[in-house]
Write a structure and sequence with these properties.
This protein has six helices and two strands; from the N terminus they run αααββααα. It is mainly α and 146 residues long. The chain has a single domain, classed as Winged helix-like DNA-binding domain superfamily/Winged helix DNA-binding domain (Arc Repressor Mutant, subunit A), CATH 1.10.10.10. A two-stranded antiparallel sheet has the order 1-2. Helix 1 packs across helix 4 and helix 4 packs across helix 5.
């Protein structure tokens, strides 16, 4: 459903939210080591998130990444859209071109059941914030590891 790149992006934003005090910048090395993601690959992901205005980035010896908005104002769907796009929520699960709302064409055999599930997942991603996820991680008292 989500690409590995998108999963890394979500985990990276969560890591920054959990480890940044007063929205201080965090360097790529601690994020990379903390999440066990190769630095060059992580750097590309974080730059995309910066271009999409989810993160701030700065170069240099005191550079790094920070959240551009409050954790309660960043929804999962923003990260998913930045990395994977939203095609998943508009396309047929088995890849048929005829799977549309057009009454002249028959949708795929999974269309009606899958459409409801897909809409629920979209709603979850639209309403679940990084702040809410951070809170759940903290409440787990160390049982959730990024």
């Amino acid at each position: 459903m989500l690409s590995n790149t998108c999963k890394y992006a979500i985990r990276s934003v969560l890591y920054i939210a959990l480890h940044s005090k007063n929205n201080e910048k965090i360097g790529i090395k601690p994020i990379s080591e903390g999440l066990n993601i190769p630095s060059p690959f992580l750097g590309k992901i974080l730059q995309v998130l910066s271009k999409k205005k989810i993160l701030n980035s700065s170069k240099g010896p005191h550079g790094g990444f920070s959240l551009r908005k409050d954790v309660d104002d960043i929804c999962m769907i923003e990260i998913v859209e930045a990395i994977d796009g939203l095609d998943f929520f508009n396309s047929c699960i088995i890849g048929l071109n005829s799977c549309t709302e057009n009454p002249n064409e028959a949708p795929c055999p999974l269309h009606n059941k899958y459409g409801a599930i897909r809409d629920q997942v979209f709603e979850l991603f639209k309403t679940e914030t990084i702040g809410g996820m951070v809170e759940k991680i903290k409440e787990s008292k160390g049982k959730i590891h990024l």
